[in-house]
Amino acid sequence: MNLEDVIRRALKIVKPTDKDRKRLNSVIERALDLAEKYSSEIDGVTGVSLEGSAAKNTWIKDRAEADIFIHFDPKIPKGDLEERIIDLGSRIIRGLGGVPRLMYADHPYVEGVIDGITVDIVACYDVEPPNWIGATDRTPYHTKYVIENLREGQEDEVRLLKGFMAGCGVYGAEIKVKGFSGYLTELLVLAYGSFLEVLRAVANWHPPIIIDLERYYESSEELIELFRGNPLIVIDPIDRARNVAAAVSNTRLSEFVLASKLFLKKPSLRFFKGKEERKIRLSDIRKLSKNRNFVYLFFRLREEKPPDVLWGELRRSEEGVKRALERLGFRVYRSGSWTDERRHALLLFEVDQVTLPRYMLHKGPPVYLRNAEEFVELWMRRGIGPWVDGDRVYVLRARDETRVSRLLKREIKRGEVAISRGILDSVKSGKLGENLGHLIEFGKKHEELRRFLIEFLEARPVFLRK
User: Fold this and answer.
1) Which residues contact 80 (CB under 8 A, 6 or more apart)?
2) What are the tens digits of pLDDT across the range 201-260?
């Protein structure tokens, strides 16, 4: 299949049909009607609007979302706004026949699934730029900017880019993914013109990458200094002080660059299909884990939390455990987090070994320093050595524990591992193990966990999987 054929067929995958549009529009119409009705009963509401990809006509098939924004007078205190949007959002979702779920970004919002479509009821303050109070205050202006600047036909270019990113596992700015937001993909199309031109540009990216559509800044140096540490800098056209790409991790950016290069070299629909359904056999998990070393923390969640809150705790804890393992002397090849977002969670690490050598090299001071003789006297009684190598004294020091699971358990008990407070008690009462047998056994009845394990063990981004 040549490039044109792939793009034509990919568009059929990502572009909504008339039936899809009718279904979404029906839900939107009902949601807006209820939002108008219920919000009229609440003090401080200044308006209701449809925002996001549905309003901009850039949504992709099978990912239909309706973002209903309730605008509040800026005089309303944040605490009152949060209480009102939770109450109002819950009433709207129930009125649509759904089950409300509390979510959290800059402040709480309510989500529900209606006829297979995700409906979010979100609050924002009715303010003029740049007098932002909360992050969602910008959203109506984002919608307006994209609608005014996207040329006819570019909606499909955005869909192709979103579909490509989703298929490659880099789409979504939430903490679970740390990838590209819908608004960011729209800005990339505005910057480069089309899906293909975006990929051609991305294939040649070298961080830091800078995109400033409104040319707010005269020099790249000023931007790099202002957004220090960001590999991708995309200035928000409606807020010069904001980097739209701040949530994109270096890993997701790099995966996007690699996927773009591979697609341009050998176009294929697999870049748009993402995680295809396949039967995951436990025997495959056992086979892939054979002769490899792991340590994991598997635990039961004590309370249900908004996904972004939970994933934030898991990601921070994953990094904390990784640092602890490295401090203990283990090399961590890879790490990953998983949760069903309801009851269970897992922090998994692949390490170079599960048992450290009995002895470790301990470097002493240079012989020219006064404490060199004290070091020698101390270690004459308890170590192997000491000896001199170059200008320093060394000994072999015996470890009191060598097993990774026991060492990690001890460090957690001592409070020496940076685990988020919100899940610390769950971690302490959970399972700390090395053999994946316990996880495989649990995975017999839990397909999501089986999928995570096979993907972790295969160790390939989604666009490189067979």
Assistant:
1) 44
2) 999 999 999 999 999 999 999 999 999 999 999 999 999 999 999 999 999 999 999 999
Q: Are both 82 and 225 inside the same structural domain?
A: no
Q: What is the pLDDT of residue 62?
A: 87
Same domain, 382 and 434: no
CA-nearest of 106, 2, 118 to 53 is 118
Q: Is residue 6 part of a domain?
A: no
CATH number at residue 225: 1.10.1410.30
Both 302 and 346 in a single domain?
A: yes
For residue 65, name the pLDDT band (cuts at 50, 70, 90). very high
CATH, residue 441: 3.30.70.590
Nearest to 100 by CA among 92, 108, 162: 92
Give the domain extent around 370: 359-398
- Please write the tens of the pLDDT for every residue from 128-142: 999 999 999 999 999
Domain assignment of residue 3, yes or no:
no
Total domains present in the chain: 4
State the Cα–Cα distance between residues 154 and 437, nearest whole angstrom: 50
For residue 154, pLDDT over 80 is answered with yes
Inter-axis angle of helices 182-192 and 195-202, nearest 10: 90
For residue 242, is it within any domain? yes
